[in-house]
């Protein structure tokens, strides 16, 4: 007998939709279409169960029942009441309604959920003289209603609680720990599955409660993320097929027993002893004791070590919200960059941050980045190849060269006639003052000091270097014009002074020009 095809929808955080499409196809979905914050797919009950047990990325697996217009509370009530709810639950069952409304007339979600509940309860009372009760904690049947542009989509929540809850983490673990499905997405984007297959190791130098470590171990060991859960939304659903579920569950248990010995070395460090305590407890609950090593160690004392082969360094450092915090975190990110460059040559690295600007102080060029969300907070996942050609020289000389190159690029194609007067004056000064300095055996001397009011700079030569100081312009001067003058001057200085760009230093001084 041909299995009945179900219309299913998997919800997921924004930014993970394409990854979820691939995951569902790997589980057997033939048709899977990306939607905002989710994926529509079709399959039989076995696929639905597999998605609940094996999806590392989904929040919920919804069985779609019907859709109908619902511009008023009465239309919503009548449409829900037309569904044969006794096919899905008993009169003695417990239920919960999750109601979401977007761009619709009914905007109050609690009111909408109440109308849906009333319709179901009234139907049972009229048919059986008995009614289901509401249970907010682990109901027998969860009903999901998505009201979009006055069309109600009614579904059974097969997952029950959000699938990101793997049952290994309790309430602790820091102010904003990564949700498990976001951690899984970060690992996938960072290329961990392929690295793990090659027995490459994983290190998280700021591991917090250990979520990245545990998700990495579960991936590498072919461990179903839902295997520790004892509650799913389908377990008390009337159409639940226990034999199919037991087969899928037993297969997952067998795969864990067979493949968990393939987990490569996974190590986590953190300077917070409480975080390490929570991480260890989470590892214990995940039944991964002996598979993951964690210890208290600050990033600043992370020492070089000879590893058998390159692997992945992955971490979710603090982001900082207040200005003072961000200033302090610049040093942390700079230290992270130095540790990566020194300790992990030829490794891959991934840094997930809510403040991408902090990533710029690491001194390594990201080869790629992904936009993701940690809850409502927009974040970036920065991916790095730790090879010398990707390292950024942060020395003063390298900064000088970058500044000159940026200035030359900014004025490329511009009419440079306006700066010619400055160039002529500087050449004349240089010719005269250089001879005088040689005659007096002086190695350091000033060759220009705001001689032309339009160009308020002081330029000093010292041996084989030049210091260019720009007098801070008054507030009455147009900023764009002042910036253009600065760029023009910096662009022409290397040829006039006959110095390489890295030998030309620059700073702004807060004094009145003459």
Mean pLDDT: 92
Indicate the percent of residues in helices. Answer: 25-40%
Give the class from helix and strand content and strand pairing.
alpha/beta
Please work out how many helical segments DSSP would assign.
14
- Main sheet, how many strands, which sense, barrel? 8 strands, mixed
Outline, from the CA principal axes?
elongated
Task: Describe the 3D structure.
Helix 13 (417-440) packs across helix 14 (479-497). The strands form 3 sheets. This protein has an 8-stranded mixed sheet. A 7-stranded mixed sheet has the order 11-10-9-12-13-15-14. With 514 residues, the chain is of the alpha/beta class. It contains 14 helices and 19 strands. The chain starts with 5 loop residues before the first strand and ends in a 5-residue tail after the last strand.
Provide tags for this entry.
37% helix, seven-stranded mixed sheet, alpha/beta, single chain, 19 strands
Write a concise synopsis of the structure shown.
Helix 5 packs across helix 7 and helix 12 packs across helix 14. The protein is 37% helix and 23% strand.
Describe the SSE topology.
Layout lengths: L5 E6 L5 H10 L5 E4 L2 E6 L1 H10 L5 E10 L3 H9 L12 E9 L6 H20 L4 E2 L6 E8 L2 E7 L22 H10 L2 H6 L4 E3 L6 H10 L21 H18 L6 E5 L2 H13 L6 E5 L15 E4 L7 H21 L4 E6 L2 H4 L8 E7 L2 E9 L10 H16 L5 H24 L3 E6 L7 E6 L2 E7 L7 H19 L6 E6 L5
Parallel strand pairs: 5-6, 5-7, 9-10, 9-12, 10-11, 12-13, 18-19
Antiparallel strand pairs: 1-3, 1-4, 2-3, 4-8, 7-8, 13-15, 14-15, 16-17, 17-18
